[in-house]
Every structure is written in C-alpha cells, then in structure tokens.
Amino acid sequence: MLKEIIYFLLDLAELILRRWIMIGLIHGLLTVKDKYASREKWVKVGFVIISTAYYLAVNYLPPLKKFFYGHEEGMFTSRASIAPLFLSLLLMLVYCFYFYYGKKSSTFYLVFTAYTVNELTLFTLHSLFVVLLEIISAVLTSVALNGNELILSHFTQIFEVVNIIWNLSYQAVFFLLCYKVLQILHRNLSCVRRKRNHIQEVFLLVPSVMGFCLVILLRSILYDYNGSQIRFVMDEYPETRLLIPMLSGLCLISIILSSVILRKLVESSEKEMLVEVYQNRISDMEEHMKDVEHLYDGIRGMRHDMKNHLADLEILLGQEKNVSGEYEKEVRRYLDGLCEAMEELDMKCSSGNPVTDVVISRKMRSARQKGINFENTFIFPEKLGISAFDISILLNNGLDNALEAAENEEDPSIYLGSYVKGNMFFIEIWNSFTGELFADEAEKTLLTSKADDGIHGLGMKNMQSCAEKYFGTLRWESSGKEFLLEIMLQGKEIETNGKKRN
To answer: What is the mean pLDDT of residues 104-115?
Structure first.
C-alpha cells in the first residue's frame, strides 16, 4: 500500500511540474485578456489544475479507463494512449484560446510545440534510462547469484529502492532537459513574437509537426500485450534502443534550430531596415539643407540685385506719364515681379523654430502646387527639450503621407496642428481621405497597399522610432471621409539658468 502511495505521489508531482513548465512557455509569449489580467497567476494555475485533473480522471477512474483503454485495469497497448493525448491537446488549445490574446496560429503553435517538446523529451530519455535500469538489475542479480547473502536476502527491498532512485533520477533529468529546451524556445521566440508572418510560422511549425508524428508513431508500436505476455519493440528490435532517443533528440534539436534561425533572420532584417531608416533620415536632412541653401542663395541674389532694382525704379519714376497709362502698367509689372521674387523667399509659417519652418513651408508650397488646401497652426514646443530634427522627421513623413492621400480626393485638404498638455506634446495631422485603410492589429501599425511595401513602410517606421525615443505613441483613426494621425511625445526636463523646467 505504501509503495502504491509513493508511486502515485511521484506520478502526480511529475505531472504537475510538466504542466507548469509547459504553461511557462505559453504564458510568457501570450498576453492574458484584459478581463483576466487581475487574476493572471490563476490563469497559469488553472491550466495546471485542469490538465492534471484530466490526466488523473483518465488514468484512475475506472469508467474513463474503460472508455479510453478498453479495460478498467488500464492500458494493454501503447496505442491506446494516442486518443487521450489528442484530447488533452485539444482541451489545452481551447483553454488558451479563451484566456489569451494573440493570433490563433501563434497560440496553436505554442501549445502544440509545448506538448511535442514534452513528449519528445520523454522518448529521448526513457529508452536510455530503461537500458540503465536493465544494467543495474543485471548487476544486482549477478552479485546475488554469486553468493552475496545480504543482497540475496534483501533483493526485493533493494530493487524497490533502486527503482525509486531510478524514477527520481529520470524525472530530474527530464525536467532539466525539458525546461532548458522550452527556455531556449522562449528566449528566441520572444524576440520575434510580434513580427512573424504566415511563412515564418509555417517554418517554425514544420519541425514540431515532424516531432509530433514521430511521437504518435512511437506510441503506436512501443508495446502491447500478446496473450499473457507483453511485447516491447525495443526487445524485438534492439537497434531501436539507440534509434528512438536519437530520432527524438534530433527532432528536439530541429525545433530549437528553427527558432534560432528565425530569430537571426529577423535580427538581420531589422538591421537592414535600421540602415534604411537612417538613410531615410539622411535624405530628410539633405532636403533641409537644400531648402536652406535655396533660401540663402535667394537672399544673396536679392541683395546683389537690389541696387539694380532701385536704379530701374528711379529711372521709371523719372519718366513722364503718358496718356495711355503705360507708365503705371510698367511700374506695376516691375513691382509685381519683385513681390513674386520676395514671395519665393518668404516662409509660409512661423512655428517658432527655423528647422520646422523650413519643413512646413516646403510642404505648404507642395500642397499649393497640387491644389490642396493646407491649414497650419503648428507651434514648436521650445520648452520641452524635444529635438527639432526628430520633430522634422515626424512632420516630413506624416505630411508626405497626407499629401499623397489627399491629392486624389475631390476636395483635398490638410490640417497640421499641435498642443501641449503638461510635459506631453501632441501633433495632429488631418487630411481628407476616402480610401481603404490597411492595418496590422497584432503589430499595431499601418500597412501600405503598394507593392513595394519595404520602401513605403519606412515612413511609418521612422515615425514610430522617433515617437518611441520620447516614450510616445502613434494613434490613427479613419471615418471613411477623413484620416487623423495623432503623435504623442513625452517632453524632457531641461535646465535654463540653473533651473529645471518641463
């Protein structure tokens, strides 16, 4: 009786720890739904309780044992364990779909992989430990038969102790290996959990499916009863003692490598994207420099020609008026030409910062050329310590998108504004828009409808990068007739005359 209790407690402890390790991977990579966020720990505990209760019911309640295994005594063939395994997997999938956010494909992959890793670890170690137990049994038997009376008289008790130690050792190694594999998966998948597309998820899933198929195959042939004798595949085919752990181990390695390779590919892609982002910023800076050069070239040219203009005006003023009014027309044309030249050098806005003045003026000029109405009330937040260059990146990309979206509208309009609340700075860019909005809710970003999305996606990535630099966010909304982009930035404390201010 004591022996049965000990083995039951060991079995129960093993099961609880297995499920706790499995939910560790799932819980660490999925987000609990808001209505259960206050009871987040209980979501993990619930997973363990339900899966443990299911296992105990299937393996210890006679009606369920007879339903699944065909006998109230338990399994007479390893094949009978396949149906309970599938049902357990399905039960946990439903549980995770109910309590966690995320794409269904990602949730399925995590639950499926957790179960597969658990099973593959079991088959990787079980064959090796069975061989180890056989070796120990053979040694004890040999010593007892050679006349060791102590072992011979207490052989049964000694073998029971060895069996318990073997079980504890097996479970310890199992938990260590399973935990390390899931830990490596967690570390690699956490780097790419919001950036996986369907192809990448298939790339991750294929090794897990292969491993699970191997698990089903092994459960189908591992053992069965032939009359009154039990038949083990490892006894009939000794080579499987080596092949089973090798194949299971290789499947575990392939699951790990798929996550490592994907992480490295994503990191490489992000580095390339970062280079493109900085190239895009350099391009913005070159545009600023061209505008400033144009402004100062115009000013120098105007100063150079001013004497000639004054001399021409003096000559015109010295001429006598004629009856036909040609004098007034000539002077008016000359003055209009001067006004147009000065207009080109005039800033269209006064935001409080020369950098943003140049950017906004250039966009307003572009809007006028495209026949787009442009209203501007933007004021630069001088006291918040936000870089003018960073704001210029936000304005450049945001207004470029607005201009591109509005130019095809029947009544094209753009509005640019800003306001300050405490140490928070808000930029609003509104434009008329009746098209279709594409968004990726999982990554919380807008998508372009253009074929070369790698290029056109840089604008939004530039803006997100600048916003995150100031612990800010981008928010957008579309009503079907207009589009609003709101950028929130958190200002920094700066010192002025020895005093801090926001």
So the answer is: 90
